[in-house]
Amino acid sequence: MKKEDKGIIIEKIAETVKEYPCFYLVETAGLDAEKTSDLRRACSKADIKLLVVKNTLLHKALESLDYDYSELYPCLKGATSVMFSHVGNAPAKLIKDVLKKDKEAQLPRLKAAFVEETVYVGADQLDTLASIKSKNELIADVVALLQSPAKNVVSALTSGGTKLHGILETLSNK
User: Fold this and answer.
1) How far apart are CA 131 and CA 140, in angstroms?
2) In sequence order, which residues have a C-beta less than 8 Å from that of residue 114 and are 6 or more positions away?
3) I want to staple 75 with a disulfide (CB 3.0 to 4.6 A). Which of 2, 65, 111, 149 is the partner?
Protein backbone atom coordinates (compact mmCIF):
# COMPACT_ATOMS: atom_id res chain seq x y z
CA MET A 1 0.00 0.00 0.00
CA LYS A 2 1.35 3.43 -0.95
CA LYS A 3 2.11 5.99 1.74
CA GLU A 4 -0.44 8.42 0.23
CA ASP A 5 -3.15 5.74 0.41
CA LYS A 6 -2.31 5.06 4.05
CA GLY A 7 -2.57 8.79 4.79
CA ILE A 8 -6.03 8.93 3.24
CA ILE A 9 -7.19 5.87 5.18
CA ILE A 10 -5.82 7.32 8.44
CA GLU A 11 -7.72 10.56 7.79
CA LYS A 12 -10.97 8.65 7.09
CA ILE A 13 -10.60 6.61 10.28
CA ALA A 14 -9.89 9.77 12.28
CA GLU A 15 -12.97 11.48 10.80
CA THR A 16 -15.11 8.47 11.70
CA VAL A 17 -13.78 8.49 15.29
CA LYS A 18 -14.64 12.20 15.55
CA GLU A 19 -18.14 11.59 14.17
CA TYR A 20 -19.10 8.97 16.78
CA PRO A 21 -18.90 9.50 20.57
CA CYS A 22 -18.49 5.76 21.20
CA PHE A 23 -16.46 2.99 19.64
CA TYR A 24 -15.62 -0.58 20.58
CA LEU A 25 -12.51 -2.54 19.62
CA VAL A 26 -13.65 -6.09 18.94
CA GLU A 27 -11.99 -9.30 17.82
CA THR A 28 -13.91 -10.96 14.98
CA ALA A 29 -11.13 -12.69 13.04
CA GLY A 30 -12.23 -16.28 13.78
CA LEU A 31 -15.81 -15.86 12.59
CA ASP A 32 -16.80 -17.80 9.50
CA ALA A 33 -18.39 -16.05 6.51
CA GLU A 34 -21.99 -16.73 7.60
CA LYS A 35 -21.48 -15.43 11.14
CA THR A 36 -19.58 -12.40 9.86
CA SER A 37 -22.43 -11.62 7.48
CA ASP A 38 -24.97 -12.02 10.31
CA LEU A 39 -22.91 -9.70 12.51
CA ARG A 40 -22.74 -7.06 9.78
CA ARG A 41 -26.52 -7.30 9.26
CA ALA A 42 -27.16 -6.97 13.00
CA CYS A 43 -24.85 -3.95 13.16
CA SER A 44 -26.67 -2.33 10.27
CA LYS A 45 -30.06 -2.84 11.96
CA ALA A 46 -28.75 -1.40 15.25
CA ASP A 47 -27.26 1.67 13.52
CA ILE A 48 -23.70 0.56 14.31
CA LYS A 49 -20.91 1.08 11.81
CA LEU A 50 -18.53 -1.90 11.66
CA LEU A 51 -15.04 -1.45 10.21
CA VAL A 52 -12.18 -3.90 10.00
CA VAL A 53 -8.96 -1.92 10.34
CA LYS A 54 -5.23 -2.44 10.49
CA ASN A 55 -3.99 -1.80 14.00
CA THR A 56 -1.17 0.51 12.92
CA LEU A 57 -3.52 2.67 10.85
CA LEU A 58 -6.03 2.92 13.71
CA HIS A 59 -3.18 3.71 16.12
CA LYS A 60 -1.95 6.54 13.89
CA ALA A 61 -5.50 7.85 13.41
CA LEU A 62 -6.07 7.94 17.18
CA GLU A 63 -2.70 9.65 17.71
CA SER A 64 -3.67 12.34 15.20
CA LEU A 65 -6.71 13.35 17.28
CA ASP A 66 -6.77 15.80 20.20
CA TYR A 67 -7.92 13.29 22.82
CA ASP A 68 -5.47 10.93 24.57
CA TYR A 69 -6.36 7.36 23.55
CA SER A 70 -3.13 5.83 24.92
CA GLU A 71 -5.04 3.39 27.18
CA LEU A 72 -6.39 1.70 24.04
CA TYR A 73 -3.03 1.19 22.31
CA PRO A 74 -2.11 -2.06 24.14
CA CYS A 75 -5.40 -3.58 22.87
CA LEU A 76 -4.39 -3.05 19.25
CA LYS A 77 -2.98 -6.54 18.72
CA GLY A 78 -4.28 -9.24 16.42
CA ALA A 79 -7.18 -8.63 14.08
CA THR A 80 -9.31 -5.68 15.16
CA SER A 81 -12.77 -4.60 14.12
CA VAL A 82 -14.18 -1.29 15.28
CA MET A 83 -17.86 -0.80 16.09
CA PHE A 84 -18.87 2.87 15.96
CA SER A 85 -22.12 3.99 17.57
CA HIS A 86 -23.95 7.09 18.74
CA VAL A 87 -25.47 5.09 21.62
CA GLY A 88 -22.93 3.93 24.20
CA ASN A 89 -24.50 0.60 25.13
CA ALA A 90 -25.74 -0.51 21.68
CA PRO A 91 -22.59 -2.42 20.59
CA ALA A 92 -22.34 -4.16 23.99
CA LYS A 93 -25.96 -5.29 23.78
CA LEU A 94 -25.42 -6.50 20.22
CA ILE A 95 -22.32 -8.51 21.21
CA LYS A 96 -24.20 -10.04 24.15
CA ASP A 97 -27.12 -10.98 21.86
CA VAL A 98 -24.79 -12.62 19.33
CA LEU A 99 -23.03 -14.60 22.07
CA LYS A 100 -26.37 -15.58 23.65
CA LYS A 101 -27.68 -17.03 20.36
CA ASP A 102 -24.69 -19.36 20.05
CA LYS A 103 -23.76 -20.62 23.53
CA GLU A 104 -20.43 -22.06 22.36
CA ALA A 105 -19.34 -18.91 20.50
CA GLN A 106 -16.22 -17.10 21.69
CA LEU A 107 -16.41 -14.33 19.11
CA PRO A 108 -17.02 -11.46 18.74
CA ARG A 109 -14.91 -10.68 21.81
CA LEU A 110 -14.58 -7.22 23.31
CA LYS A 111 -11.03 -5.93 23.52
CA ALA A 112 -11.76 -2.39 24.68
CA ALA A 113 -14.31 0.39 24.37
CA PHE A 114 -14.33 4.17 24.41
CA VAL A 115 -17.73 5.37 25.62
CA GLU A 116 -18.52 8.99 26.49
CA GLU A 117 -14.85 9.84 27.12
CA THR A 118 -14.27 6.77 29.32
CA VAL A 119 -12.09 3.79 28.40
CA TYR A 120 -13.12 0.23 29.26
CA VAL A 121 -10.54 -2.52 28.71
CA GLY A 122 -11.21 -6.25 28.62
CA ALA A 123 -14.00 -8.66 27.76
CA ASP A 124 -15.12 -8.65 31.40
CA GLN A 125 -16.41 -5.08 30.93
CA LEU A 126 -19.16 -6.22 28.53
CA ASP A 127 -21.89 -6.43 31.21
CA THR A 128 -20.94 -3.00 32.56
CA LEU A 129 -21.09 -1.49 29.08
CA ALA A 130 -24.44 -3.11 28.31
CA SER A 131 -25.96 -1.62 31.47
CA ILE A 132 -24.79 1.95 30.78
CA LYS A 133 -27.69 4.25 30.07
CA SER A 134 -27.52 6.39 26.98
CA LYS A 135 -27.62 10.17 27.16
CA ASN A 136 -31.26 10.19 25.95
CA GLU A 137 -32.27 7.58 28.56
CA LEU A 138 -30.71 9.68 31.32
CA ILE A 139 -32.49 12.82 30.10
CA ALA A 140 -35.80 10.92 30.04
CA ASP A 141 -35.21 9.72 33.62
CA VAL A 142 -34.50 13.26 34.83
CA VAL A 143 -37.58 14.65 33.07
CA ALA A 144 -39.73 11.90 34.58
CA LEU A 145 -38.34 12.65 38.04
CA LEU A 146 -39.04 16.35 37.61
CA GLN A 147 -42.57 15.76 36.30
CA SER A 148 -43.63 13.45 39.10
CA PRO A 149 -43.77 16.04 41.93
CA ALA A 150 -45.44 18.60 39.66
CA LYS A 151 -48.11 16.07 38.70
CA ASN A 152 -48.72 15.30 42.38
CA VAL A 153 -49.17 19.00 43.21
CA VAL A 154 -51.55 19.55 40.30
CA SER A 155 -53.47 16.42 41.27
CA ALA A 156 -53.75 17.55 44.90
CA LEU A 157 -54.92 21.02 43.88
CA THR A 158 -57.46 19.61 41.45
CA SER A 159 -58.87 17.10 43.92
CA GLY A 160 -59.09 19.73 46.66
CA GLY A 161 -61.00 22.03 44.36
CA THR A 162 -63.48 19.29 43.56
CA LYS A 163 -64.02 18.54 47.25
CA LEU A 164 -64.48 22.22 48.07
CA HIS A 165 -66.95 22.60 45.22
CA GLY A 166 -68.90 19.58 46.49
CA ILE A 167 -69.02 20.95 50.05
CA LEU A 168 -70.17 24.39 48.90
CA GLU A 169 -72.83 22.87 46.69
CA THR A 170 -74.11 20.74 49.58
CA LEU A 171 -74.25 23.75 51.92
CA SER A 172 -76.06 25.87 49.37
CA ASN A 173 -78.69 23.14 48.90
CA LYS A 174 -79.43 23.07 52.65
Assistant:
1) 16
2) 22, 23, 24, 69, 72, 120
3) 111
Helix axes 33-45, 90-101, angle to 10 degrees: 140
Render pLDDT for 15-31 as a digit per residue (tens, 0 to 9).
999 999 999 999 999 89
How many Cα atoms are found within 13 Å in the side-chain-facing hemisphere of 174? 5
Q: How crowded is residue 46: how many other Cβ atoms within 10 Å of its Cβ? A: 16
Measured between alpha carbons, how far is 165 from 62 in angstroms, rounded to an integer?
69
How does pLDDT run across 90-112, given as a tens digit for each residue? Answer: 999 999 999 998 888 889 999 99
Displacement of CA 130 from its chain's centroid (Å): 8
Q: Is 43 helix (H, G, I), strand (E, B) or coil?
A: helix
34 in helix, strand or coil?
helix
**116 closest CA partner among 16, 50, 23:** 23
